[in-house]
Amino acid sequence: LDVSMDTWNNFYACLVSLWLHRFYIYSAVAFGISIWIVIQFTTTKTKKKGEKSNGNPASSEGIEDKLVNGYATLQAKEVYVAGVKIFYGSQTGTAKRFAKGLAEAVISLNLPVEVISMGDYDPDDCLSEETTSRNICVFLVATYTDGQPTESAAWFCKWLEEAANDFRFGKTYLNGLRYAVFGLGNSVYVDHYNTVGRNIDRWLWMLSASRIMTRAEGDCNVAQSKHGSIEADFEAWRAKFLSRLQALCRGEKKPCSGKCKKGKCKSPGKQSKESSDHEHGASEYENTEAEELFETSSEEEADAEEAGGTNSVIDVEDLGDIMSHMKKAKRERELEEGDVGTSLTRENAGRKEEDEKREMITPALREALTKQGYKLIGSHSGVKLCRWTKSMLRGRGGCYKHTFYGIESHRCMEATPSLACANKCVFCWRHHTNPVGTEWRWKMDQPEMILQEAIENHQNMIKQFKGVSGVKADRFEEAMTAKHCALSLVGEPIMYPEINRFVKLLHQHSISSFLVTNAQFPDEIRNLEPVTQLYVSVDASTKESLKRIDRPLFKDFWQRFLDSLKALSEKQQRTVYRLTLVKAWNVDELKAYADLISLGKPDFIEVKGVTYCGESSASNLTMANVPWHEEVVRFVQELADLIPDYEIACEHEHSNCLLIAHKKVRL
After folding, report:
1. Which terminus of the chain, N or C, has less C-beta within 10 A?
2. Which DSSP helix (H) or strand (E) runs through 163?
3. 300: Cβ contacts below 8 Å, ≥ 6 apart
4. End residue of a domain, out of 197, 225, 250
């Protein structure tokens, strides 16, 4: 009992002591809690500062929700950019290649990225999800024939257009989606240049999506491309996009309001210190280049916002004031343009002069053509060894020109002084790797240099057959001296401004000349000095089929075609029509072909079945479009019945080709 009483007394004494000293105990506990709060606050602030300086909150966890001693501690870290989705619509593979290159650059920023073909994406089910995903959507889209989207992007564009104009979707359907657009086009097609990219940009804007930067346009026309090629245009845009993306990852808010004109963003709000420092680091030249490269949406969008915003409601009574405001703004713009007209003229003249100094062959084009076996000369010419040349070196048969006209294939040099063409034919042997244009705007090489290097390159290619099994020694020696030049390698040789001097040089070297033109340059045909034989390609006999097959750049292509045939009839030399038959495309137009023959009055008509050159994303031709030789023969027989002044003269079955000659000519 005494022991239990002692224990109780001791315990009671402790309690009394604690009670008496309770103030000191409370103070110690409060001090400890204060120290813990200060430590937690300092640690959190330091961590946030470090993440901000590193620049990419997307790589860290978005929200930390952990239990500490039974209490929930919420530390929200806002994710400004969750990832990047790159959508591409490509026909020849350029947009796809750009998309993959951009994806690699985005990955280097430690951001998730997804590359998506528009043909594999259902916008009806998925696009609205991007309004809350915090992703950046990038659209790399090419413009195809007649301003239409590529096959893979056709459905996406159709859906987007319908959504933008369907009141059931609502004008805020894509509010929250952030996007950027880079269009791929060719400014030679003036009426349809980058139509698809512009439309996608406008339709997204109409659905209240937000541009993170103004639209950019790449140009395949090296003479007009801001940076010399579409690849260089894309590189310039990519650098600006990556810079903008990094700014977004840091949480900088500088949205494009759509009021931008000529690449100068007028969006409200101050830029953060990081953005200002970054932009100060870039040179004035780069800024100027970027501003001139990037095109925004149409001026109608800016006018709409100035009049009251994207989604504002306009009272009918205020409509007159708004129209007056828009007319006044238009007059002010016209006056301003008139005041600076002289300086703009000088500037444009300077730019044109600069453009003329550009080379036709870009580095990417040079690489592609070299892989195809071309020996490139200077900045716009080329030469290549024909397979019939190799065949005749071995003592085998020659091409149809040997059968029809006696041209020895092993002594024939296939060349061109202009790789550029004014058509993009569906059966192009070169799969449209060569440039296109409607006039000469490139740096020009002299004809003497072109001919000298063409002969040297041709001889070097012949030398490679020395000692090859089967090559005839006598034919090898003969082949070292070219006696004929087929100006039909690729492109439009008649576009070359010094074509007359070049042909004259050929003849001075005792080299005969066969020149082929695509019937789009009637004045040049009239001004052309006599060649040994002048060809005009007649790929179709009606306006509709010619547009579908040749895909010409000129808007007045049909009138140019007819004028070229009339010009051919005026030439006092041997002339030839060259018909290329594409099954299911142009083989049912016999009467129309007969009418064209009476217009141009050629001495010869070569009718040849199309040659299938393999699968190409630039064309949907297949082996089913190649006519059998029997079908070509039947076509020629039926055509000959419609043109009584002509008769079938010769046949070369291996080339799937027949010759029709005027009866005044006896072979």
Report:
1. N
2. helix 154-164
3. none
4. 250
